[in-house]
Amino acid sequence: MTGTFRTTSEEETAAVGRQVADGLSAGAVVLLYGDLGAGKTAFVRGLAEGLRVSPDEVSSPTFTIMQEYRGGRLPLFHVDLYRLNDPREIDDLGVDEIAADGVLAIEWAEKLPGRPATAAAVRVNIAHGSGDERTITIE
Ligand code: ADP
Ligand code: MG
């Protein structure tokens, strides 16, 4: 699913994530771009809902680097690079290997040293408008 979507609530942003989830298969990497508070985690919650893993548990994996949600159509791996600044540390995560048997969602994907090797990369940019408006571009 590609295109531009305008949302005016966290729930609407999650709904876009749910739709994207339907088109994902094992090995997919979802690269998320956007400022703090843009709605990246909200979007990942939507991915979790769409994959039928427990969305209630989805929060920013700030202290764990990676969270894993299983029990759905595919496992969801959720990484937030916000607090990682050492490129080697990011490299050590082994993004390409993690993704192989599930869906990997990466917040602050601009911090990745290179593009993931997988062909199944979906780029999601979330830009702030005024108030609760967000523009989500998916390519
Ligand atoms: P990020 O992970 O990008 O830092 P979060 O998803 O954690 O952002 O938080 C987004 C915040 O913005 C939440 O507090 C949410 O309620 C609020 N918000 C307001 N409008 C929207 C919208 N249209 N889409 C997503 N979040 C929104
Ligand atoms: Mg976040």
Strand residues, percent: 25-35%
Strand arrangement, major sheet: 1-7-6-2-5-4-3
Portion of residues within helices: 25-40%
Give the overall shape: globular
Helical run tally: 4
Biggest β-sheet, characterized?
7 strands, mixed
Oligomer: single chain
Low-confidence stretches: none
Describe this structure in words.
The chain starts with a strand and ends with a strand. It has 139 residues and is an alpha/beta fold. It is globular, with a radius of gyration of 14 Å. It is built from four helices and seven strands, in the order βαβαββααβββ. A seven-stranded mixed β-sheet has the order 1-7-6-2-5-4-3. α1 packs across α2 (40-51). The model has no long low-confidence stretch (mean pLDDT 89). It has helices at residues 10-22, 40-51, 87-92, 95-99, and strands spanning 3-7, 29-33, 66-69, 76-80, 103-107, 121-128, 134-138. The structure holds adenosine-5'-diphosphate and magnesium ion (MG). Residues 40-41, 60, 80, 107 line the site of magnesium ion.
Short description:
The chain is α/β, with parallel strands linked by helices.
Keywords:
binds magnesium ion, 139 residues, alpha/beta, globular, binds adenosine-5'-diphosphate
What is the strand and helix layout of this fold?
Blueprint: E1 3-7, H1 10-22, E2 29-33, H2 40-51, E3 66-69, E4 76-80, H3 87-92, H4 95-99, E5 103-107, E6 121-128, E7 134-138
Parallel strand pairs: 2-5, 2-6, 4-5
Antiparallel strand pairs: 1-7, 3-4, 6-7
Helix pairs in contact: 1-2
Bound molecules: adenosine-5'-diphosphate and magnesium ion (MG).
The site of magnesium ion (MG) has 5 residues, from helix 2.
